[in-house]
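quick one before i forget lol
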Amino acid sequence: MSTTSDRTPKTAKINQRHGWQRIFGGTRTRILVWYFFLTAFTTLVSILATREIFCASLRTKAEQSLVREVERFQLLVDQQTRNSNQLNRNDVAALFDEFLASYVPTTNESVFALLDGQLYKSSPTSLPNLLVQNPNLVKELAQLNQTKHTRLVTPKGPIRYMAEPIATSTGTRGVLVAVYDSTPKYQTNQETIVLLIQVTMVVLVLFSWLAWIMAGRVLSPLRLLTQTARSITESDMTQRIPVQGTDEIAELSVTFNDMLDRLQLAFASQQEFLKDASHELRTPITVIQGHLELLNYHPERQQEAIALVMDELEGMNRLVNDLLVLAKAERPDFLRLKPEELDWLTEELYFKARALANRDWRLESKGLSPVVVDRQRFTQAVMNLVQNAIRHTKEGDTITLGSSVRDGYAYFWVRDTGEGIAPEDRERIFERFVRATHQDDSSEGVGLGLAIVKAIAQAHSGWVELSSHLGVGSTFILVIPLVSPQDVAADEPDSHRRRQPSYHRLFGSRTTSSWVHHIGGKEWSRSRSDGEQ
């Protein structure tokens, strides 16, 4: 209870957040913000990468076009040079005329020729945009002595050109300039990117709104989980989260519901345990208190009162020790395992049991195999079964002990020919503070013996089986794996099921099987099927 109260201020502080604090600090908002920034970043990177690829492609296309035209002009110059060793002004003009006549203008491309520092001709005939942007470029190009390949950056985009000079022996200078104007395509690209950004922002806002709605639906089980956790109280632990789908949220809901089932079972068991323990302790305390009070009026009964008080205290001490055993049964250090020989252990337990009461004791068989057990705890479980058999038999009745090994398990049984157990009691006798029969309420013990047997068997990764008939007798069988419980837990994915009640194993959980014992040299075989009682 203190844990719940300690957490209450923290929970209240979280619940006090309202308005913008809950909106901007919630998981839903964080998911949406991350989604928005991730999408925006991805879109921006994609746009920039696309723009860079487009510019690289445009640059490559321009350079290839310029180089192609200049190489074609150089080819004409080489042919003219082979025909005439010396070129004059007319030869240069003729070269320009021939080249421009065969030149077919394409989009964004143009060619013009300079002769003696003046614009001679161009194709198309309109003044190239390059010269419009830079009027002084003609003088600069007229002084060239070698091929020049460069780029002119303008506010509207880059313009690339390649100039090829020609010099004659008479001093005439000519320059052919091939131009690729990228500004129209560059402008179109810029406009497309701006439009794409605008459309992307609108779509991003729309999808963010949809993401907000979807995030709310996805996180709704978490809100239900929170509401369910808040609604759980000591008096009401029945609330559960509805499970939809098979995703991680559904798995979380199933896990949370399973946890609530375990908590409800544990809490109910705790309440029942406290109620039963208080009931069992109240009687001896009342008896002790009453007899001690009577000593003031009857001092002569002191010895009788002391004997009775010591007897009650001994019973209380036994009850406390049994409760401690059950409390320690869930701890990992409850057992101290080591290999034991099953036949020697069976014989030792038989001799211990036969000294407890005057019965017809029989040792039926002894299993021949090592078994990994806690000798002290296993002996305690068997002795509890023996004590239970003694309480439900009379002098002359038979109590049989035996053991065998089959299919990787050791079976140790205690059989009696007593009064038997009613069918309606077979599922509850392994619970705490429940006695074997309705007529056993006044007998010795407080109903923890079989609960301890079950706890010890489960600690060994085993279980307890029961077969009983009224008026015929009962057989309790301890089933223990031959390997250690740690190996069983590691090798068996369903080893957690061994923590289930004993009657889970008793009724319908195992397939048909049989075991063979030897009585007086005769082989005795008994078959057992699911659901046998």
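fyi Residues 1-8, 10-15, 438-443, 492-533 have pLDDT under 50 and may be disordered.
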